[in-house]
Amino acid sequence: MRITFLGKGGSGKTTLATSFVKYLEKKKKDVLAIDADINVNLGTALDMPKRYLGDIFDYVCKDLESNYNKPFIGSSPATRESIFIKDGLDDPFLRKFATYNDNGTALLTVGTYTDNKIGYACYHSKLGSAVFIYNRLLDNNDLYVVTDATAGIDSVGTSMFNVSDLNLFVVEPTKKSVDVYKEFKDIVSHYGIDTYVIANKIKNNDDIEYIKRNIDEEHILGFINESDDLRKFEQDDKDGLNRFIESNEDMLENILNKLDSIDKDWDRYLSVQKQIYIDDVGDWYSRYYGEDLTKYIDEEFSYKDVIEND
Fold this sequence. Notes:
It is a single chain. Helices cover 42% and strands 14% of the residues. The chain has helices spanning 13-26, 42-45, 57-64, 92-97, 123-134, 175-189, 205-214, 228-234, 238-247, 249-261, 266-289, 303-309, and strands at residues 2-6, 30-35, 99-100, 106-109, 143-148, 166-171, 195-202, 220-225. The chain has an 8-stranded mixed β-sheet, with helices on both faces. It is globular and about 60 Å long.
């Protein structure tokens, strides 16, 4: 099952994503963490090495497609010719491109700008590698995929908003933070995607009431008080995160229960990915390649068929 942590810059989404990964490790779950944020802080917070994927799109494609003699872009949907990541954390693709810690957690890192890209490259192009991987990842109830996304509503500039079973927005008790959440929610709701909320940096009951006035309570999974432990963690006190997790186990359990309660909808996922791909190639890529790339959509492909026949 997949969960993506979102939020405006500074809201605490990376810290929450890190905490959830550590909580899953504590419960002996298999975890694939994906750092899709330009600031690449998830690997640092998890104390794991990073191997950047954003600049090696061609290599990613060659490992996940049996027919490489056609144009691919990041949002290219899977086909019957695709090679799928289906063996959990031991899958050959992950062993090649991910890094691992002593708990067995795997980390994929999109990466940040490199010297030769500064000044003209768009970070969205780097996210293409990640989206390509998500579209060929056959996760199940035994594997938890935890993503730290780009800040604000930037994820709607790619199909990153559609990669998970659960989108979790970290919201501060401020108008700016709430407005960013509402804008994101309105955009993705057109695709049938629900977004849930964790309210962070709560100081008092007034903050709680402010969140409740502006966000439907049925979408709020928890409240987090402003934390000295997190401040200590950000000051390089490793035990600060452990203390934070211990004091917020009920909230983390709520997130896990919500994620476990969701029925994965492979058909909806594929349908949205196809539409995003059609929009992408219609905007620019078909003209660039000099052919209509929509012809590469495999209308006979079904995730369920691949899973059932595996």
